Amino acid sequence: MIKQALKTGVIYTNMVIQMEVYEGKAKKVIPIDDTKVILEFKDDATAFDGKKKAQFKGKGWLNAQISAVLFRVLEERGVKTHFIGVAGDNRLIAERLEMYPLEVVVRNVVAGSLKKRLPLEEGTELPEPIVELYYKDDALHDPMINHYHARILGISEDELREMESIALKVNEILREYFRERGIILVDFKLEFGKNGRGEIVLGDEISPDTCRFWDAETKESLDKDVFRFDKGDLISAYERLYERLTGESV
Ligand code: 5GP
Asked: Does residue 44's CB lie within 6 angstroms of at least one atom of ligand 1?
């Protein structure tokens, strides 16, 4: 494809397009070169398909730092992630990936949208983790899909199985890591991409914006549910999570 593009001279346009900054709801992805990007975490928060919006000063910093801690934990335990380093307050440097248009959700405890699918009460511990796939598409409101749908989107069965297997490994590692710190990892969302060497790598962020964390004793939320359901002060919940993870006060 690249050869063909070179012949027709399209490659230059392609490269320009790829060097553009991508701005999402909570992050900017700023290309540095062919292999690296900067992830800039914003203070903006959105929920319910973008219907609820607010800004929280310091959220970007907290999400960047918490993601960095968790990516390091995973790398140390053999999970390939896009994380390279911290690049200042609310920025990380990461390997450039071609992202799959998928959200891979893993659940350990009944909460959130699972309550609409199974007749189980919030807080019920699942006998085994559930893995779900969602197609990332704002216009379709990120519908839940299965392997048949994903294959139609051009994602192979092998790729799907590899992503699900990495997601379950991430769950094992993080569930234990949080348990040791008095926190229940209720559920979380991951996104994957392919790097320049064709490897499937964990991308995006792992933060209280993308996970549910409950205090093991009080069952208080230390995540974006504080904003979604007006459960209190979002920044102090995120700060408490940061302090439990790092042992340092903000
Ligand atoms: P639920 O399907 O229950 O709404 O979400 C399950 C888990 O995945 C939660 O931890 C939630 O934060 C995360 N999640 C699912 N979809 C999204 C999304 O589009 N954006 C973010 N930030 N997190 C998501």
From this structure: no
